[in-house]
Amino acid sequence: MHPMLKPALRRAWRGRNTVQFGVTRAHAVKLGPVDIATGSFLELLDGTRGLPLLREEARALNLSAPQVDTLVRRLADAGLIDDVRAGGPEADALRNRTDVLERQRPDLASLSVVHPEPGGGLRRLAARRSMRVQVRGAGRVGAAIAAVLSGSGVGRVEVLDGGLAEPSDVTPGGLPATAVGERRDTAARQLVRRSAVGPAPRATETAAAGTRGSGVPALGDSANGGPGLSLVVVAPRDGLAVYAPDPRTAETWIASGIPHLYAGVIEATGVVGPLVLPGGTACAGCLALTRADRDPQWPRMLAQWRSGRRNAVQACDLGLATAVAGLAAAHALAFLDGELPATTGARWEAALPLLDWRSEQIGAHLRCSCGAGGHTEGERTSVLDAAHDTMAG
Predict the structure, then answer these.
(1) Which of 43, 85, 177, 286 is deepest in the core (most CB within 10 A)?
(2) pLDDT bracket for residue 88 (50, 70, 90)
(3) Domain limits of the chain?
(4) How far is the C-alpha of 98 from the C-alpha of 112, rounded, in Å?
(5) What's the CATH code, domain 131-392?
(6) CB atoms within 10 A of CB 361
(7) Is CATH 3.90.930.60 correct for 3-85?
(8) By C-alpha distance, which of 172, 349, 374 is closest to 262?
(9) Cα–Cα distance between 317 and 266 in angstroms, integer?
């Protein structure tokens, strides 16, 4: 072990005997009491020394080997220690890709803060390279999501959409102006390649990696011998298909156990979620049945909206679309890194002009064929815990 204090956490003395690591309430940790010798020892934790050398140099500070081991263990338990050599073979391979790693230093710093175990940040960053995500939609929201996922190190990002790119599809973080008139899927693939931090891993490499790293299961059919789908992000240009998704489009994902996340904008309202874990959380079918229970006229109106004029201009403000894409990509990455983000079984909405983000839990419906409603609350919690354990590896 070559311990290093996590450089992403700013350090400050709260007083003569207490050190605080971190600024924000979410991740700040206080350590005390810290005497002069211990404070000096902290300066040695820069990743250049292994434990034997640290014990040896600590003698000059009148710190014994057991004291050194106890302090390092205490810091590690508090999530303050990283290990510059930990993370496994995939992390070692990423360390050798200095061009890729230099570009992803901010991502690695963030992961090191969020995941406390030594080497956990680099292990998850390396694991992203073996993952395959499909984004359904290449409009203002979907294209930006695909670009962020690719730029965040996801090895294979596929974008599905039809038709030709229009001027209204162009965004600073999505399709460029030069894409107008091209096939949307072709333009999106070019965007993904430009956004990537390095060449996509070979199919044999990603297939061999399997579920190592964060442990997100790769489900569904694999293409060209590559990995199965770790996640589908549903971000169609028509926001109605996110606000009121057609359960039939998700039948294959439900049957195959493929997690999927909805994101889009409709009538100046941003929508992110739910993240559906098939069999564990509410799906599009649950949402449709629940709405019909609350409002018997909802199916009648929905049928009219779906069959209405398709060439109407979408009320999709660029700032809101960018915010939705960023939030959805962040939730997708949290899931891929082994967490269950706040969109799991829930939907987040914000409407212009106030942009007050609010969340709503979406309950599993007993009559839905997805099976999530057939669990008791305890059983459903067990399903989610099992999914979390599988992802965390």
Answers:
(1) 286
(2) confident
(3) 3-85, 131-392
(4) 18
(5) 3.40.50.720
(6) 11
(7) yes
(8) 349
(9) 10
Whether the CB-CB separation of 83 and 1 falls below 8 Å is answered with: yes
Amino acid (1-letter code) at residue 208: A
Tens-place pLDDT, residues 279-314: 999 999 999 999 999 999 999 999 999 987 666 789
